[in-house]
Amino acid sequence: METPDTPAETPAETTIAAKDWAAASADPQYRAAVVDLLGALAYGELAAFERLAEDAKLAPSLEDKAELAAMASAEFHHFEQLRARLSTIETDPTAAMEPFAAALDEFHRLTAPSDWLEGLVKAYVGDSIASDFYREVAARLDADTRELVLAVLDDTGHAGFAVEKVRSAIEADPRVGGRLALWARRLMGEALSQAQRVVADRDALSTMLVGGVADGFDLAEVGRMFTRITEAHTKRMAALGLAA
Amino acid sequence: METPDTPAETPAETTIAAKDWAAASADPQYRAAVVDLLGALAYGELAAFERLAEDAKLAPSLEDKAELAAMASAEFHHFEQLRARLSTIETDPTAAMEPFAAALDEFHRLTAPSDWLEGLVKAYVGDSIASDFYREVAARLDADTRELVLAVLDDTGHAGFAVEKVRSAIEADPRVGGRLALWARRLMGEALSQAQRVVADRDALSTMLVGGVADGFDLAEVGRMFTRITEAHTKRMAALGLAA
Which residue, among B55, B58, B102, B104, has the nearest Cα to B79 in the 3D structure? Predict the structure, then answer.
């Protein structure tokens, strides 16, 4: 795990991490960043619900369909938690989500799986990247927000069942591996491209994500965060039998 | 409520209703009927999950989308409870569901909403008919199965939000009422037509549903059950401002 969770080198984060929401949110820039973060996560979960439910139609069996439906339902419950939190901090959830709808919708539009295996790889990749991202960001949050983010994270990992299915499909027909490796690369490419778009649009969020406190943010650190997430993705794809 | 829940006139049901599953399931015909019932309900909930998630895409706002997604998620949890019960009574859930897949898939295929209001009416009608049916059947079940069916029933009614939305749409444009009334009639027609198909195919289930204990079932009583459900539907449609 390359996520920096030793706060010694990053005093600004330490300060935030030691505060609760009431104290931390006194800083309007921090508050705006958290509203953005919760809005982005909430819309992401709602969109994931929709796509997983859609992909469940591709399932070759009722058991498989139920597995994907279970993931979709779990994403919906994350959405509910995040939405409740937005209401608690007196923010309109819809207003908080809207700035992220276009990027997330576009990601899903460009990566609609054409068959069951592509759907499984997408569910697995999406779930894993979401976990990585939640972990990256948790260390930079106040205690109350961190608790919520970690609770939502703790409940992911439903995609584990995808790993076995994809592995056996590749064993049965190795050509499947080549096709799915290309697919996983495309998923990652589209995810990064939409993430860049969000980073460019949302200053407060981006500044917080990279640990910045000034009125700008360190583009090199954005790059390093994306690199860490990409590397973790590459390792997972290799473990799955796919060259990333 | 026209559901007969006074057991005095129906000694056969009283016998079953007073038993728990261990005692009641000693009768192989009763056991087969309950496996059919749970299988049909489980597949119905899974199919409802899929369709509601699909219809959520038609939502005009994020709040509306979230409402339909919440209903979908509730249906999925019903599915989970019913599937768990099938496993508990040592039945393969998939085998129990499969006989009902064709009728339910066909129903949904023939009644795919073409817009948000049709989706809302379908969610409301579907939820209500499911409740009516659960209530009809509960009185004929052993104590353990009845408890599950009532627990699942207790958690329905998420469709209430649909009523307000449909009412205001009709107020804003009365022509909408005519179109939706036709739509609701078509929904009911397709539901009955698929139900008839199931009744014709599944002897044990049908016999139990109509309170029969012999090797045949009372077709007139099947008709009366359908009539009761249709009448309740008509009243609901009138309350919604739709001529049924």
Answer: B104
Q: Which residue has the tokens 């809207």?
A: A98
Q: Looking at this predicted complex, what is its ipTM?
A: 0.74
Whether the pLDDT of residue A213 is over 60: the answer is no
- Give the number of residues written for chain B: 244
- With a CB cutoff of 8 Å and minimum separation 6, the contacts of A10 are A4, A211
Model confidence, pTM:
0.81
Q: Rounded CA gap, B168 and B104, in Å?
A: 31
pLDDT tens-digit series, residues B78-97: 999 999 999 999 999 999 99
Half-sphere exposure for A28 (CA within 13 Å, toward CB): 1
How high is the pLDDT of residue A79? 95
Q: Any CB–CB contact under 8 A between A72 and chain B?
A: yes
DSSP assignment, residue B158?
T
Q: Which of the two residues, B5 and A178, has the higher pLDDT score?
A: A178
Chain A partners within 8 Å of B84 (Cβ): none
Contact flag A66-B83 (C-beta cutoff 8 Å): yes
How does pLDDT run across B190-200, given as a tens digit for each residue?
888 888 888 77
Q: How far is B54 from chain A (nearest CA, A)?
A: 7
